[in-house]
Amino acid sequence: MMFYLFWMHFYQLLTALCLFWADFIPAFGYTDNIQHFWGNWSFGFKCFFGGAGCDSKCGVRGTMFIVMYAMGYVGTVNLARFSEGATFVAIVNAAVTPLGFLFWTMFRESPFGFHPAVDITTWFSIGGLVPMVPAIFLYTMLELHERLEECIASDTPEHPAVTPLL
């Protein structure tokens, strides 16, 4: 899986590098010449790190996004590798959207802080989580039960049964 993700992101980088010229298309891009392009690119790079008169919030938020994005991929890969596989990953990913919506319902973005703002869409998100969370728990418990039955069924002197921790 990590091999696939590496190549996917590598080809995304190659595509971005090969299509930088699209910024020069009149009425589409933002530059007229290579110096203007380089000026825009270097300003964005400096601004990300708090330079060029920009606040450091951009860099902090951008770095947090990059780290969390990478952690999400690592978590997904490990979940697919050490759990039942892609089915459980899909089930967990289905709960991400309503949980993210509930998080941003409880907190405001700027300035970041606790500020609940409940409306009708909040109840839709909670209504979606009501069947999802018990279903995820039930799916996990049934998977553990099946593994335990397989271990008991294959209990031979060569392959003794392994008792689960739960």
UniProtKB/TrEMBL annotation:
The keyword Cell cycle does not apply. It is a multi-pass membrane protein. It is found in: Membrane. Keywords: Membrane, Transmembrane, Transmembrane helix, Transport. Coiled coil: none annotated. The keyword Mitochondrion does not apply. GO terms for cellular component: membrane. Belongs to the CRT-like transporter family. This is Uncharacterized protein. It comes from Paramuricea clavata.
